[in-house]
Amino acid sequence: MANLPLIIYVHGFNSSPASWKAQRLVAHMQSIGREQDVLVPSLSASPAEAIEQLQAIVQAHRERFITLVGSSLGGYYSTWLTEHYLNVRTVLINPAVYPYRLLENWLGENENIYTHERYQLTHEHLAQLHALDIPEIFDPSRYVLLTQTGDETLDYREAVEKFSGSTQYIQEGGSHGFDAFDEWIPMILAFSEGKAIVPPATTLTVLAQQEA
C-alpha cells in the first residue's frame, strides 16, 4: 500500500493531536490497517514555526501524494501548503479564512486546551498569519470544503465564498468542532485517492452541494 496517499491532520488554534477529530481519523486509519499512512503533528503556537513544521513534513514525503485534513486554523495553513506544493490536496473542515482578524480577540496569554501549555499571542503572530494569506485559489479542484452553519466561532459563509470553485458540502446546524466528523472519513479517503466522493447519510441536512 506504499502507493496510497499520506493523510496529514492539521489541527487548529489551541488544539492538538489529542483533539476528537484527530483521534477519530487515527482510529479509522488503524481499523483499515493504514496507521502508517496518517500523521497528526503537534503544531507550534507560532504561525511561522507551525508552517515550517508542516513544510518539513511535506518535503520529507515529497515522493507521495498527500491529503491534508485542515480544521479551523489548520485549514488556513493547509490552504497555503496546497498552493505551494503540487503533490498536496486538502479537505477543509470549518476552515478559518481570516484568522489574523479573528485572533485579535485572543491577544495576550492563552492556554492550549489539551496540553495546557501557556503562551503569549502577539501582534507579530498576527502578522505571520497575514503573510500566509492566499488571495486567490489557483486550482479549486484540489479542495473539498466541509462546513456547518452552526459554527459558533467562524462565519461559514466566508469559506463558502473563498472556495466557491471547489466541491462543497454545507450542512445545517452543527458546530465549530464539526459534528459527526467520523461519518465523513470514508469520503475524505476517497477524495485522497482520486475516487468519486459520496457524502454520508448524515443526521445533519446537507443544505448545499457544489461540485468542482
UniProtKB/TrEMBL annotation:
It comes from the Bacteria. It comes from Nitrincola tibetensis. This is Esterase. The lineage of its organism: Bacteria, Pseudomonadati, Pseudomonadota, Gammaproteobacteria, Oceanospirillales. Gene3D superfamilies: alpha/beta hydrolase.
